Each structure stands twice: as structure tokens, then as C-alpha cells.
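Q: Please design a sequence for this.
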């Protein structure tokens, strides 16, 4: 793929304003505390390059705008734990993925589950992260949170077997199959449980299992993943050719393999719009569940899903992990520039060094992001 200028969609213009507000007022406090903890506990490289550059406090604050400071710290503890799961499973055999995923979920269920492990990630989860989550997550929601993570870990294992065996080509070459797989591996379902906890939404499992509730949640995840794939494409293309990105899957799908990149971006936008229409349709068709308070909680859950969809896009647009836009003018105009020279090893190394030095010597991305949302 040669150098090019591409028009990205203005996804925020398609969505309503967040019912929960723009950003948690506890963002700055949670950001300061989290980054101090990361620098102390996770080591120089992992803290400075991997975790810090992900700017998780900003995502937490814009996707959970009603969360308290304690809840934001618990959300960040979970984000760090899921980030650790990725590190434990991303570059190893499927057999090792099974072992590490089971160790991870056992530790999340019960801190004694990881007691015998010497891995520093598991030790940190057991001693600090899980207790932090348990202290903030409502007891009503904790079993749902564990169940959502069991589902997540199970699909991380499934994805590893598909990757190793390379026998299920439809999983990576077909839009529909990719969408279904992505719903389970993006890790958003546990985040939705945390959102219900922060909003004090007591929705029992049988109501969550209603077909319209399940579809509303599924298409909300679809919007999160479509937006994520659009805004992360530049980074992923530079990393590995964006092998597991919707824009690449569209190119592989026999029904859309004739589309160039700009047309694929437009096609992904159509998929986003279709998911948004289905979301509104499901919400409008939801029945009464026979209790006024419960119906109010269900409606508030839909509001929380909107917060999460919009917040994820807000974070994707401005975070330095993706670096989708070259400068502020391009960000305002949704212009993505791809430069093939950056994909050479020499330029990648130079880019990496400049990024690390900018972080180390005073370029603090989160401060500029803070100004974006408080300007």
C-alpha cells in the first residue's frame, strides 16, 4: 500500500451526546494515581511504553463518566489485568495460552487461585488488582463480572487454537464470522458489567438474556469494534499489516474484495450505521419487565452503552497509541495519512526511539488530552 490520504468518517456526528456527561470529574486524580502506581509496580519499559502509551485513564474517564474515583481506579485495575492477559497469551502456543488463560481467570475468581504462580503479573493481580476491583464492584455485579470474564478467557483460548491450527479460514476471511468472533475477543462485555455497577443498575441474568437485550449489547460491541478497527488501522498496518482488522477482512471477503482502502472505510461506516440502526430498533422494542424500577434500570443500561460507544470513539480519536492523525487540523477533518516509508524497519526504529524519548523528556500526552476534553 502506497502513501495516501484517506477520509475517515465522523462517527461522533452519527451518535447522540453521552447521557452520562462528557468525562468523569475524577479523571485527573485517577490518572495521577494510576500512573504513579504503574511506574512503581510494572517496571520502566512496560510502564513507559506499553501501559502509559495506552492512556487507559482517559478511556476509563470518557467511557464511564459517572464513575467515582475509587471506581475509576478499579476499572483501571481491570484494564491492567486484561492488558496482562494479552501479554500472557499474545505470542505463545495455544497450549500455553490455555494454561495462562486459566491461571488468569482462576486468579480473578479467587486470589488463592494464583497463589502458587511466580509470574509477576499474576502476583500483582492477586495482591493488588483483584482486591481493588472487589472493593469497588457492587456484590450484585461481581458474579456477572466473573461470568463475562470466563466467557472472554474461553474465547481467547479459542482464538489461539484457530491461529495455531489455521484451519478455520472463515474466521479471518469473512466479515460475518469476523464480527461474531470479535464480539467475544475484544473484551468489552466485562466492561459493560463494570458500567452497570458504576450506575447501580441491578438487572438480573434472565432479563439480560432477553433476545432484544442480547442483540442490543451485541450491536453496541459491534460499533465499538468497528470504530476501534477504523482508528487503529494505521498503527496495526505499521505493526503487522493489520492482519486482524476489519478493513483487511473486508478486502479478503469474496463479496467485497474488489474495494480499495477508501471504499473499505466507507463500507465499514455502513456497517457501523447498520449496527446503530439495530441498536435504536432494539431499544425501542424492549418490553416492560413487569417492574418500574427494573424498566428504569434497563433504560439506563442503554444510556450507559451509548456512553461507552461514544467514549471509546473519543478516546480513539485523540490517544497517542493509535496516532491516527498527523496534526490537529487532520483530526478535526478526519483525515488519515498513510506513509509507506514508515513501514520500513529503519523508519520504524526511528519512530520508536522518538516516541520513547518524547515520553521520557516531558511530552506528556495525557495533559494535552485533558485540555481537549476540558477546553
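A: Design:
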Amino acid at each position: 500500500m502506497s502513501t495516501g490520504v484517506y477520509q475517515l468518517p465522523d462517527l461522533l456526528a452519527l451518535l447522540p451526546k453521552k447521557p452520562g456527561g462528557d468525562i468523569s470529574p475524577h479523571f485527573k486524580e485517577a490518572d495521577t494515581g494510576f500512573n504513579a502506581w504503574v511506574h512503581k509496580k510494572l517496571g520502566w519499559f512496560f510502564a513507559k511504553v506499553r501501559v502509559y502509551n495506552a492512556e487507559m485513564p482517559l478511556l476509563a474517564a470518557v467511557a464511564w463518566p459517572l464513575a467515582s474515583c475509587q471506581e475509576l481506579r478499579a476499572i483501571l485495575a481491570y484494564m491492567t489485568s486484561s492488558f496482562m492477559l494479552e501479554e500472557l497469551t499474545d505470542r505463545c502456543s495455544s497450549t500455553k495460552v490455555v494454561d495462562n488463560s486459566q491461571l488468569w481467570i482462576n486468579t480473578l475468581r479467587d486470589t488463592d487461585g494464583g497463589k502458587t504462580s511466580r509470574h509477576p503479573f499474576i502476583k500483582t493481580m492477586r495482591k493488588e488488582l483483584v482486591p481493588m476491583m472487589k472493593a469497588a464492584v457492587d456484590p450484585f455485579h461481581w458474579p456477572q463480572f466473573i461470568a463475562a470474564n470466563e466467557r472472554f478467557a474461553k474465547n481467547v483460548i479459542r482464538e489461539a487454537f484457530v491461529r495455531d491450527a489455521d484451519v478455520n479460514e472463515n474466521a479471518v476471511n469473512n466479515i460475518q464470522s469476523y464480527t461474531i468472533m470479535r464480539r467475544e475477543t475484544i473484551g468489552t462485555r466485562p466492561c459493560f458489567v463494570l458500567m452497570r455497577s458504576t450506575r447501580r443498575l441491578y438487572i438480573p441474568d434472565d432479563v439480560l438474556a432477553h433476545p432484544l437485550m442480547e442483540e442490543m449489547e451485541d450491536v453496541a460491541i459491534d460499533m465499538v469494534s468497528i470504530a476501534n478497527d477504523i482508528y487503529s488501522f494505521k498503527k496495526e498496518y505499521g505493526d503487522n499489516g493489520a492482519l486482524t482488522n476489519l478493513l483487511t477482512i473486508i478486502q479478503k471477503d469474496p463479496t467485497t474484495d474488489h474495494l480499495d482502502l477508501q471504499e473499505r472505510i466507507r463500507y465499514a461506516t455502513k456497517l457501523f450505521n447498520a449496527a446503530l440502526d439495530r441498536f435504536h430498533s432494539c431499544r425501542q422494542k424492549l418490553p416492560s419487565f413487569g417492574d418500574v424500577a427494573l424498566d428504569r434500570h434497563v433504560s439506563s443500561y442503554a444510556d450507559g452503552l451509548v456512553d461507552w460507544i461514544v467514549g471509546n470513539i473519543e478516546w480513539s480519536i485523540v490517544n497517542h497509541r493509535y496516532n491516527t492523525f498527523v496534526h490537529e487540523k487532520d483530526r478535526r477533518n478526519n483525515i488519515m495519512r498513510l506513509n509507506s516509508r514508515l513501514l520500513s524497519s529503519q523508519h520504524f526504529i526511528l519512530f520508536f526511539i522518538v516516541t520513547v524519548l518524547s515520553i521520557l523528556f516531558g511530552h506528556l500526552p495525557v495533559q494535552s488530552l485533558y485540555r481537549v476534553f476540558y477546553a
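Q: Thanks. Anything notable?
A: The domain at 4-338 is CATH 1.10.600.10 (Farnesyl Diphosphate Synthase). The beta strands are 4-7, 335-338.
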